[in-house]
């Protein structure tokens, strides 16, 4: 976590790249309780590092917080910073998961990257860290595998 003040509650410019983005965390008001927090980004955009063409994904991030929550405005700005960033599907998905893991140190975290086809092949990427605590209900991510037009 940066020592800079939170971005929450003030105008904030869109970061030019993920390296320039600031992810913020805030204290979890229920650190003694296991529960799942979910963020869904159905219009995630990045660029192919080879062709520069846009790539699109539906990201679903689930985590069981410990002491920290990710502050949602900073997460939105961080994810939006990928729109001009060149990265393979696997790098973007796993990299986002690892950044959140490092920042939050959650009890459990998973990210599903459901990528739209490029070159006729959809690529779905999944990454997980930690063990899901016993008794925690985690709903299905709710994104169907790519089926084309039918």
From TrEMBL:
Its EC number is 1.7.1.13. It comes from the Bacteria. Pfam families: QueF. It is found in: Cytoplasm. The active site is at 48 (thioimide intermediate), 55 (proton donor). Belongs to the GTP cyclohydrolase I family. QueF type 1 subfamily. This is NADPH-dependent 7-cyano-7-deazaguanine reductase. It comes from Variibacter gotjawalensis. The gene is queF.
